[in-house]
Amino acid sequence: MLSDKQIHQFKQQIIEMKEEAEQEMEKYKEDDAKELYPNDRTGEISSVADHPGNLGTDQHEREKRQTFYEQAREKHMEAEDALKRIEEGRFGVSEKSGDPIPVERLEALPTARYTVEEEREIEKDA
């Protein structure tokens, strides 16, 4: 079982993770807002692309930003879930078996919901 001190340390670490994810999500939202008015960014007068290859590059960049945004959003949700488990007294306990999650695992991944073995089992079955 985790001590109150350990739980407090993990809580602080998770709060930092959550704030970092919020900043990342905001950055990608700002990038998307800039994308709505690309001529402001490039200084171009017309919105007509000079070269068809630019369209593919722009689409790739939009998809890449969307992927990064989704990763940040998932990280944010995981942090929120971990904070909820702390508040409910369920932090550090596997959601699958109810067994304690080793401190080493929580140090590596504070938002862990399962032991390493259970996580492997879940991934294998997916």
Structural features, described:
This protein has 126 residues and is mainly α. It has helices at residues 4-36, 38-42, 52-88, 103-108, 116-125. The chain starts with a helix and ends with a helix.
Quick one: how many beta strands?
0
The run of helices and strands is HHHHH
List segments where confidence is low: pLDDT < 50 over at least 5 consecutive residues. Answer: none
Shape: elongated
> What's the mean pLDDT score?
87
- Biggest sheet descriptor: none
User: Count the helices. How many?
Assistant: 5
How much helical structure, as a percent, in the residues? over 70%
Strand content: under 5%
Radius of gyration: 21 Å
Structural class: mainly alpha
Rounded to the nearest angstrom, the distance between the terminal CA atoms is 30 Å
